[in-house]
Amino acid sequence: MVVANMIFLVVPVLFIFVSYVFILSTILRIPSAEGKLKAFSTCSAHLTVVIIFYGTILFMYAKLKAKDFSGADKVQVTDKIISLFYGVVTPMLNPLIYSLRNKDVKAAVKNILCRKCSSEEM
Fold first, then answer.
1. CB-count exposure of residue 49 (10 Å: 0-12, 13-18, 19+)
2. For the chain, what is the domain count?
3. Cα 104-106-110 angle, rounded to 5 deg
4. Which residues cross the membrane (predicted)?
């Protein structure tokens, strides 16, 4: 199990981390502040999805198994919540995270929130 974790979890995470180090060094060499902001905006959406996806996987598969049988119910509930987060929440957040980069979607969300805020004030 440890070898499989290293091959399928740690190696891709390290590869992504090293890639982002190179991306970050390239972004920091961009002369304009607007260019840096746009590049960080593009990278932040992908990095958020990667952190959510690999974070739950690493937590789920790399955690130590508890030997305490009195807390078995707590361990099972935690495993179920992590599985739910990995299997349902992450795929649902993925389109939301990427669509919020779209200007039209941002404008629609702001419009809805402004309408909701103004209706609550009345």
1. middle
2. 1
3. 120
4. 6-28, 40-61, 81-100
Helices 33-62 and 90-99: crossing angle in degrees, nearest 10, is 180
Q: How many CB atoms lie within 10 A of CB 56?
A: 19
Give the structural domain span for 23: 2-121
Amino acid at 7: I
Q: Counting beta carbons within 10 angstroms of the beta carbon of residue 94, is it exposed (0 to 12), middle (13 to 18) or buried (19 or more)?
A: middle
Single-letter code of the amino acid located at 18: V
Kindly report, residue by residue over 11-62, the tens digit of the pLDDT: 888 898 899 899 889 989 989 988 888 888 778 877 887 888 777 777 777 6
- Other C-beta atoms closer than 10 Å to the C-beta of 73 total 8
**How far is residue 96's CA from residue 31's CA, in Å, rounded to a whole number?**
31
**Residue 109 near residue 96 (C-beta atoms within 8 A):** no
Closest CA to 54 of 6, 9, 84: 9
